[in-house]
């Protein structure tokens, strides 16, 4: 089992950057594939990015491709989401999630463990 804690959210202006962090408890972090999802009020939970347990494979949603980058540091039990050129449409509660399998990474129901979320608000 793993516990996840996100941080790094905040209020920024359009065009700014933020880096979200998600730190996991336990000594088995490197066995988990990780994902970032977001949810705005009234919307369904949306895939943002995913990374394999080794960091060798990454995926990103079309809406953030070229602006957001997912990475991880297994020595620090942490996964990151670097967000550049932020837009008002990126405003949401951002969650990190963990799972053991790496198929269907864009489907939130495939993830077993979730953090509490960190709020990102982008003003235009």
Characterization of the model:
- With 124 residues, the protein is mostly beta strands.
- Helices cover 0% and strands 48% of the residues.
- The strands form two sheets. Strands 2, 4, 5, 6, 9, 10 and 11 form a seven-stranded mixed beta sheet that branches. The protein has a four-stranded antiparallel beta sheet with strand order 1-3-8-7, with no helix packed on it.
- It has no helices and eleven strands.
- Strand 5 (46-51) and strand 6 form a beta hairpin.
Please give a quick description of this structure.
With 124 residues, this protein is mostly beta strands. The protein contains no helices and eleven strands.
Protein topology:
Blueprint: E1 4-7, E2 10-13, E3 18-24, E4 33-39, E5 46-51, E6 58-60, E7 68-73, E8 78-83, E9 92-99, E10 113-114, E11 118-123
Parallel strand pairs: 2-11
Antiparallel strand pairs: 1-3, 3-8, 4-5, 4-9, 5-6, 7-8, 9-10, 9-11
């Amino acid at each position: 089992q793993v516990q996840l804690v996100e941080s790094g959210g905040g209020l920024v202006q359009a065009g700014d950057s933020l880096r979200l962090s998600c730190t996991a408890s336990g000594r088995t972090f490197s066995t988990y594939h990780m994902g970032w999802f977001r949810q705005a009020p009234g919307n369904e939970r949306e895939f943002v990015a995913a990374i394999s347990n080794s960091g060798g494979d990454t995926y990103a949603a079309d809406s953030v491709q070229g602006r957001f980058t997912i990475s991880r540091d297994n020595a620090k039990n942490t996964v990151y989401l670097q967000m550049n050129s932020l837009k008002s449409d990126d405003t949401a509660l951002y969650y990190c999630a963990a799972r053991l399998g790496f198929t269907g990474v864009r489907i939130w129901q495939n993830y077993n463990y979730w953090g509490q979320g960190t709020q990102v608000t982008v003003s235009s």
